[in-house]
Amino acid sequence: MTLPKGTVVPQYQPELKSKAFITVNIVSQQEIGASRLVFDGAKETVKSSLISMVSISCYGKNAVEMTLKLKSILQATRVRERLRGIGGAIINMSDVRNLTYVLGASAEERGQFDVYITHSHVTTLSLEPIELVDIYTNNSIHQHITKD
Asked: NCBIfam families annotated for this entry (predicted)?
């Protein structure tokens, strides 16, 4: 399952060079529940479960038909297995929208739909040991506590 080189491009390009192309854009991400924290004494790992809304737009001749086909491909067993292999899953897809519009004397065909994907996000932080702490009490007594 591959697409020709140059057909999937980042959205928000100042100038797109191809007549037919697909853009993929993460629109939003929502955390599901609380993050899980793991600390091993030197580093902390924060694991979060997310739902991301990804907008997929197809441009060019027969864009709406291409969008319908792409939506069907994303429901295939092979795609679901690959996503599951990296800890993700498609949980919902919107209807395909026909966003074709007239530009000058010609029409620009565009089809679009949203995909909701669950996945994990992991961040690892190294934690340096605290060597010196300044403590101020209610009586404004300044104390230094150092690591032995």
From this structure: LIC_12616_fam
Between CA 121 and CA 139 the distance in angstroms is 45
| Class in CATH terms, 8-146 | alpha beta
97 sits in the region (left: phi over 0; alpha: psi -120 to 50; else beta) called beta
Please give the average pLDDT of every successive group of 10 residues along the chain, which has 148 residues. 60 59 93 91 91 95 93 94 93 95 81 96 85 72 60
Written as six digits, the tokens of 87 are 């800890």
- The Cα 35–Cα 122 span in angstroms is 10
3-class SS of residue 66: helix
Provide the whole-model pTM: 0.69
Rounded to whole angstroms, the Cα distance separating 118 from 49 reads: 7
Q: Cβ(94)–Cβ(66) under 8 Å?
A: no
DSSP secondary structure of 68-121: HHHHHHHTSHHHHHHHHHTT-EEEEEPPPEE--EEETTEEE-EEEEEEEEEEEE
CA 105 to chain CA mean position, Å: 37
Return the residue matching tokens 């209807």: 95
